[in-house]
């Protein structure tokens, strides 16, 4: 019985870092979010080596945004619940400098182009 307990402890020590990396270290940021303007809902989930925000609902289906469109983000931790890096939008073939932060149950994304001269921030609320 003691050997089994030691084996399980050793296994959890070895497996936990792998499971943590599988989520990319994004913890509470993963899941479903609604844009605060009410026009879109996305699911944040790992996709290969990136984190993807995939549109799951769009208010105006005639807009340039479509259900299934995704943003591929390559982000690194830049502090507690803050990630920075780049994002690629394959639908529009555009790359952005990207910052994502989680504070008080709200997710804030900020994307910039032209060396940071043109930026847009969007606030998100978690949905179940």
Automatic annotation (TrEMBL):
Gene3D superfamilies: 2.40.128.520
Short name of any one Pfam family annotated for the protein: DUF2147
InterPro entries per the UniProt record, alphabetical: DUF2147
UniProt domain DUF2147: residue ranges: 31-126
Protein name: DUF2147 domain-containing protein
Species for this entry: Labrys miyagiensis
């Amino acid at each position: 019985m003691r050997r089994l307990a030691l084996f399980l402890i050793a296994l959890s020590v070895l497996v936990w870092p792998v499971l943590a990396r599988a989520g990319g270290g994004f913890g509470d940021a993963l899941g479903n979010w609604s844009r605060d303007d009410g026009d879109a809902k996305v699911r944040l989930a790992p996709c290969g080596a990136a984190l993807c925000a995939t549109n799951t609902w769009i208010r105006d289906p005639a807009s340039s945004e479509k259900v299934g469109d995704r943003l591929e983000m390559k982000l690194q931790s830049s502090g507690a619940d803050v990630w920075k890096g780049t994002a690629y939008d394959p639908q529009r073939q555009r790359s952005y400098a990207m910052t994502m932060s989680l504070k008080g149950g709200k997710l804030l994304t900020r994307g910039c182009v032209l060396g940071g001269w043109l930026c847009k921030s969007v606030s998100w609320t978690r949905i179940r």
